[in-house]
Amino acid sequence: MTAAQKAAKKTRGRPRRGDGWQAEKSAITRTAILDAAEECLVERGYSRTTTAMIAEYAGVSRGAMMHHFPSRIAVIRAVVDHLHEKRLGEYRNLMEGIDNPEQALTREAIRKSVESAWRYVNLPSFVAYQELLAAARTDPELNDVLERTEKDVEGLFLQTVKQVFPHWESLGVLEVANDLIQFCMRGMALSHMATNKKRRAKRMIELMTDQLEALYAQAESGKA
């Protein structure tokens, strides 16, 4: 099933008439193109992702592709914004409800947050964005696109972290805890050629749970 067919399936059964339907159809095509671009980045890499390939993955004509995005960099700009929004939503969905402010924070909850962070960095959206970050190092045009939004999105991400981890925020150690998880998890996720990766990741998850539990206990005793 193409990206366009997947997007259209979500709207099946809705009323379709007049200008409203045309706008919806246009939005479906645009979403299909962005989803297809993400898929291309994951499967083919940035250097091999062309507008023709994206159109093929999306199941749309070259004309429809050019209508929405007249150049490769135009679709990449839109994909960057698309991935930012998608990744924030995915992170919230994975983490929300783990840290319940009405209950004491347990090791089990801490471990669940670490395991969820590992799942997060293995999602296609994360892989696609890391592909863009790696390519931007030697591609000035792409680097400019990412720099345009990276700082703002980092701020939004931290806001989301604060909202879903109230215990950590109240003790003032949220940023260091978040940095520990994010930097370690990114490194683990990018080590795609590592041997016995599953076993080693499990060991690191246990170690990070230990470190976070100790950090939280230290902050809590300091506050008392």
UniProtKB/TrEMBL annotation:
Keyword hit for DNA-binding: yes
Record-annotated DNA-binding residue ranges: 50-69
All residue ranges annotated as the HTH tetR-type domain in the record: 27-87
A molecular function (GO) term: transcription cis-regulatory region binding
Keyword DNA-binding part of the UniProt annotation: yes
Keyword line: DNA-binding
Domain of life: Bacteria
Official protein name in the record: TetR/AcrR family transcriptional regulator
